[in-house]
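tl;dr need the bound structure. longer version: we got a ligand (protoporphyrin IX containing FE) that a collaborator sent over and nobodys looked at where it sits. i said id run it. heres the input, straight from their email, havent touched it
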Amino acid sequence: PHPFYASLRREAPISQIEPSGMWAVTRYEDVLYVLKNPQLFSSEGFRPAVQPAWLQQRNPVADSLLMMDPPAHTRLRALITRTFSASGVARLEPYIRESAQSIVDDMLARRRVDFMESMALVLPSRAISALLGLDPSLAPRFKTWADAVTGVGIVPAEDMKRRAELTGYLDELKHHLTSVLELRQREPGNDVVTDLLQARAQGGSMSDDELLGYCVLLLVAGLETTYDLLGLCALTLTDNPDIWARLKKDRTLVPKFVEEVLRFHSPSQSTIRTTTQEAELGGVRLPKGATVLVQFVSASRDESVYPNAHHFDMERTGAPSLAFGQGIHFCVGAPLARLEARLALEALLEKCDRMVREPGPVTWNVAITTRGPAVLPLELIP
Ligand code: HEM
């Protein structure tokens, strides 16, 4: 997609795309402007993307803070800021490190593995179960549920079988989370669900739908993008043995490597906003109610802020990455995602001499706004 975005940035940085009629925003500066002006660019625009007309039940994520504007957004977001801060997630570090190491041991024992299935799915599933207090044995279901929440928006209208399947998964997800909420109501634990229930008991106003939506958002947001990020890190390392060698020599480069993977590939490709009134953006007049597609994937390669933007460079400094968004909706899970990626890579670098990818083109997994490898067959050499 990159040459296409580069031509849009040059020739039509704000352009209407057919058949959806959405306005694609492709330059760094304009993306930042949209994200920093929530009063003009509302997050409510997200809802139709997850709540198609055919879906008879409520998609729980539609009631989450991702799709809200202030003041509702401010009220809900304040409830979890502490748990997700860098110091908040640092409490999980020993558990995530141990999990990453045992996953790598297991992969080495099997030697030939699909990295996406063995690591990229398992590590974030464990982290998110620990955080939310979910039953980790259900981890294989998490991805199916998360895919259902985001998948309803892109299922072709005529695919009745897939629609029924996704509706069933949403039922299952709601049922499971409702039972977790009931359990934590009776027996508080050391997890985000308990934090949210306590905040509500202490007068933090939150409806049942908002509570459920919160948990579903954390599950989906915590899983899909981290899954992609881990896959993209592994892919970059197998395809660039020189980078692998540099990281092996100097582990302190790992966080810089992760930041550059985030910029270079932007696992979260885009987000959606709607104009609350007529607005001018990059010299283009947008009508009230216009749906705006904010393209992180393009902004991250904008040559006007990143010199040599299509070159992978861990030493890069300068413009902050937009991979986790900006402004009031800046990703709550950024410290957790960075922690998981660092610990997964440290375990791989410590225990493996090399990682070799099965030759051939990469099969990509493209969800509503995310992109990463769908499968990544590797050989791990101890
Ligand atoms: C929001 C990306 C991991 C939870 C966002 C946004 C982006 C993003 C771009 C802003 C969306 C917008 O402005 O509309 C990513 C990436 C991740 C990642 C690239 C991994 C590599 C996580 C994790 C969690 C999480 C691990 C939690 C466990 C959230 C939540 C929001 C959010 C709750 C909504 C915040 C709000 O609306 O105020 N994420 N995310 N994310 N993310 Fe992440």
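gonna send this back to them w/ a short note. The longest helix spans residues 208-239.
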